[in-house]
Design a protein that fits this description.
By secondary structure, the chain is an alpha/beta fold. It has helices at 17-28, 64-67, 84-93, 117-132, 147-157, 176-188, 207-218, 229-235, 241-254, 264-269, 276-282, and strands at 9-11, 33-37, 51-54, 72-75, 97-101, 135-141, 161-164, 170-171, 196-199, 205-206, 223-226. The chain is built from 11 helices and 11 strands.
Amino acid sequence: MTAPGRPPVLVTGATGRIGRAVVDLLTDAGVPVRALVRGTGAAVDLPGTVETVTGDLTVPDSLAPALRDVGTVFLVWTAPPGTAAAVVDRLAADPRRVVYLSAPHRTPHPFFQQPNPMAAGHAEVERLIAATGLDATIVRPGMFASNALHWWSAAVRGDGVVRWPYGTAETAPVDDRDVAAVVARTLCEDGHGGGDYVLTGPESLTQAEQVRLLGDALGRRLTFEELPPDEFRRRSPVDARPAVDMLLAAWNAATGRPAYVTPTVADLLGRPARTFRQWATDHATAFTGAPPPR
């Protein structure tokens, strides 16, 4: 996956759940990595071989040092949309190769076709990338397996009753590690220009089945208790309501039909995608320790 004297890969979102894993995979493969960080404190946990450069996607002029002499950029867009056009223009002027972490908003399955402000933002960034002629690869992970940790860990640590809406809604959770591995491969290998990769786990599972599998991994019985959507919305923080409404609409649309499942992870990595059971087994201790950071 490496080449002698290759230019560094710039990783944005390098301290996030996917970006951080991508950094590790690239450095383990001997690929030179430059990480874009908003402040020096954020770089403390990165490997010592990683070059860190301060910059901010909301201040396009700050990106010049980070983009200097890089070959490829892994773009994770978490900033407000106002500066997206200026940032993409800068990418087009320098590296001209980008791997963008997007969402499956083009996927013809009702789960992914509900109104979603985040998907609209991804679509706009993709439009900007296409307009510049950048050599681009779009990576579209579906529902992350790790959402289970943030959604259900409090209930697991409590009485073991997961009170949640739409228990029969099916998704195909994808392991974060598989997403990062696909991203790392597309950053390092030739032949992925123009690639549009929808990533899912290997099986369609109801939310209630996911809770059962999590209980199996923990060696205890967990109970799924159906929660009315309106009650779920009422219990959610006010600032989370847009995301909550999007999820409720998606789960409702997915009820009664299998999840959208792709073989893309296996096709690109040459091995089966990790199952939700495997993810739960590998992360069981995360459900028994301190609560995850928000």
